[in-house]
Amino acid sequence: MTSSQFETILPDGWPRPSGYANAVRVPAGHDLLFLAGQIGWDANRRLVGPGFMTQFGQALRNCVELVRAAGGAPGHIVRFTMFCHDKSDYIDRLREVGSVYREIMGDHYPAMSLVEVADLVEDGALIEIEATAAMPPQEPGGR
Question: DSSP letters of the chain?
Answer without folding.
Answer: --GGGSEEE--TTPPPPSSSBSEEE--TTPEEEEEEEE-SB-TTS-BS-SSHHHHHHHHHHHHHHHHHHTT--GGGEEEEEEEES-HHHHHTTHHHHHHHHHHHHTT---EEEEEE-S--SSTT--EEEEEEEEEPPPPTT--
